[in-house]
Structures are given as structure tokens and as C-alpha cells.
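Work Package 4 report. The design task specified in the project plan requires that, given a folded chain encoded as C-alpha cells, an amino acid be chosen for each position. We show below one input record used in the internal validation round.
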């Protein structure tokens, strides 16, 4: 009688647990967890963070990525580096981790709170701010070793921040809140933009700034936030992040609620008008954008997606590899031969390997019935 050798691992990529000892990502590469934030440490080095404590690093401007060990399984929502060595990432349940050697090792920082943190930004090598749940604003003047809680004047979640110098800073958050300080966070003034959540803010200098959010929200100021003009699109768009390359060029990352496709907008006139960039066939929720050099930008999103532009954001190409379809089951008939199957809507996915999982290739199932289990003898 033949011996049946069957190994079964059921998983869904959108809720995949982080790699543990003995297991590592095979497809998509370098990993498939949702990425929430990206930042550049220098002209070539980028870091991106996301679900289950994932941190990935690129040293060639976003062309290739490697996974780092964060030491946490909590979701990481924001990351900031002040140089190629010193960086901080923040996340849920008050998670804050720091590296002083370019991500080679990350260690936990104690902030005295379990409120989730959504964004962190270095102003210089010493001063760093973080914002988060229930109006939380934190400030450190010693590179994150110790933190003080600032009084924000709101209990709304604060989602993003941008400082133009050590004194002048801007914060946006839920329920349309915009906060501004001109004295290093001692005092904050508020503007209420309405019920739409404001999710991203970026000031190119002390005057020109852009705010983005849900319901197609795009606001622009040219006087440091005293007055704002509406530049938004249809309400079906959710804009997650904005980055100004210079006083003319800017990029917005987001997604379309109706089609569930990623959306990238581009401006060539300082945000007066916006147009749709060419992203090809890439489908993902785009979450964060960062500049690597004057004409090289990267955007990250869900399911580990990374896209890059080298023409000032006009065209984008995918830099991650592998399928983006959910996979429901995987089976190995022996040490080398395995099959992974899954479905997404009316489409099926079949992946095959004949080298123990080192390489995978996709097959056409010619079926729309949904693949959940498959056995090989």
C-alpha cells in the first residue's frame, strides 16, 4: 500500500501571520502583509512597515526589498528615519520601536500609554513627534529615549503630522480635525473641516501645504494653513497620503471605493489641479508615498505591494513579485512537488512548485467554481 504524504496549510494572505522559525515567505516576495507606511532614509534607502510587525528595507531606491526583524507582531502604522541609521516605527497598542543601526536591530521604547499610534516624524536628529488614538501627541527631544505628552485639545484620533521646522507643525485626524502649532507643540489651534477623516498632510515649506482624506478630500493652502481651498474629487475616492516633491510636483496615494483599485494622483502646478497617473494593471489599496530622489518615488499598499516611478510620478511599475490573489490551501505530495489554490470572486488561482517551494509558477484553472481543497497522491 502506498504511503500517503499530505501536508496541508490553510491560509489567507490578507490575514497572514508573520513568518516564524522554520517558515518564511515564498510568494509573493519579499512578503505579502499589508504595508501602511514608507519613508526614505537617504537617496537610496527606504523603509516600509505594516501588519504583524513587518518591516522591509530597500538600499537601491525601492527596486529590491529585504525583510527585517521588528521584534513585534503588532501592526506598525508609521515609520520615520532622520538618517540611514536612526529610525523609529510606531503602531497599535502603544507600540514604538527604534533602531540605531539601519534596522539591523529594533528595540522597544516605553511611552507609558497603550493608545495606538498612527504616525511618527523626525524634525531633526533629536526632536521627534508621534500622534495617535484619542488625540495623542507625543514629543521627544532626545531621539526617542524619553517622551512627553502634549495637550492636543481633542479626543479624535490623529492620523498624520508634518513639521516644517522645530516649532511649526501640522496634524490631521478623524472627524476632519486640523491642528497647528507654532511653538513646538505647547499650544495648538484647531480647524474643523467637517466629518470626512483627514488622513494625510504634507507641507513643502512654511506656506504651501496639502491635506487629503476620505470622500475625495484634497485641500490646499498657500499661506501656512490660515486659508484652505478645495481641490478634491468624487466622494468615492479615499486618499491616504500626499507628498510634495518640490513646489510644483506632488503625489497622492489612495484607492477607489467603487472599483477597489489603487489610485495615484499627480500635480505639476503645486496642487492647483490634479490628474490621474498611469499605474497600469496594479490593483491594491495604496497607503503611503515617499520620495527617494528628485525623480524617483515609491508607494506601498496592501498585500505587500510596492510601486515605483522614475519620471516624477507620471508612470508607475510594480516592484514586488508574485500573485496578489488570496490563497486558501496548499498541498505537498512529496518534498518537492506542491500546489496552492485559492479564489477571488469568480477567478481561481493555482500555483505549482517542483523544488520544495523555492519557486512558484501560476497555472490557468479554466474554472470559476472556487478552489478550496486539492489533494495529490
Amino acid at each position: 500500500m502506498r504511503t500517503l504524504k499530505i501536508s496541508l496549510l490553510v491560509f489567507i494572505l490578507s490575514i497572514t501571520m508573520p513568518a516564524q522559525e522554520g517558515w518564511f515567505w515564498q510568494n509573493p516576495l519579499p512578503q505579502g502583509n499589508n504595508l501602511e507606511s514608507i519613508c526614505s532614509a537617504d537617496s537610496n534607502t527606504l523603509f516600509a512597515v505594516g501588519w504583524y510587525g513587518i518591516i522591509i528595507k530597500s538600499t537601491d531606491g525601492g527596486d529590491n526589498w529585504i525583510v527585517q526583524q521588528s521584534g513585534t507582531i503588532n501592526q506598525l502604522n508609521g515609520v520615520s528615519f532622520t538618517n540611514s541609521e536612526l529610525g523609529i516605527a510606531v503602531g497599535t497598542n502603544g507600540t514604538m520601536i527604534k533602531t540605531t543601526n539601519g534596522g539591523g536591530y529594533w528595540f522597544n521604547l516605553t511611552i507609558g500609554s497603550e493608545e495606538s499610534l498612527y504616525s511618527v516624524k523626525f524634525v531633526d536628529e533629536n526632536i521627534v513627534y508621534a500622534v495617535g488614538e484619542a488625540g495623542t501627541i507625543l514629543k521627544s527631544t532626545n531621539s526617542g529615549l524619553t517622551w512627553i505628552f502634549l495637550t492636543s485639545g481633542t479626543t479624535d484620533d490623529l492620523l498624520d503630522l508634518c513639521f516644517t521646522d522645530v516649532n511649526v507643525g501640522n496634524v490631521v485626524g478623524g472627524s476632519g480635525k486640523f491642528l497647528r502649532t507654532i511653538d513646538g507643540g505647547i499650544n495648538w489651534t484647531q480647524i474643523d473641516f467637517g466629518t470626512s477623516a483627514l488622513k494625510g498632510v504634507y507641507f513643502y515649506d512654511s506656506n504651501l501645504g496639502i491635506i487629503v482624506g476620505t470622500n475625495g478630500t484634497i485641500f490646499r493652502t498657500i499661506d501656512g494653513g490660515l486659508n484652505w481651498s478645495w481641490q478634491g474629487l468624487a466622494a468615492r475616492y479615499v486618499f491616504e497620503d500626499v507628498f510634495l516633491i518640490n513646489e510644483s510636483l506632488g503625489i497622492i496615494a489612495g484607492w477607489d471605493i467603487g472599483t477597489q483599485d489603487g489610485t495615484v494622483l499627480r500635480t505639476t502646478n503645486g496642487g492647483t489641479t490634479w490628474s490621474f497617473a498611469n499605474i497600469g494593471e496594479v490593483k491594491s489599496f495604496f497607503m503611503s508615498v515617499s520620495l527617494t530622489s528628485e525623480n524617483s518615488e515609491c508607494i506601498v499598499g496592501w498585500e505587500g505591494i510596492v510601486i515605483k516611478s522614475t519620471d516624477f510620478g507620471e508612470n508607475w511599475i510594480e516592484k514586488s513579485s508574485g500573485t496578489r490573489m488570496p490563497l486558501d490551501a496548499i498541498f505537498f505530495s512529496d518534498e518537492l512537488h506542491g500546489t496552492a489554490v485559492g479564489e477571488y470572486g469568480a477567478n481561481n488561482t493555482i500555483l505549482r512548485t517542483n523544488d520544495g517551494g523555492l519557486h512558484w509558477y501560476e497555472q490557468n484553472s479554466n474554472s470559476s467554481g472556487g478552489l478550496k481543497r486539492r489533494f495529490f497522491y
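Residues 1-22, 321-326, 365-377 have pLDDT under 50 and may be disordered. Validation will be extended to a larger panel in the next phase.
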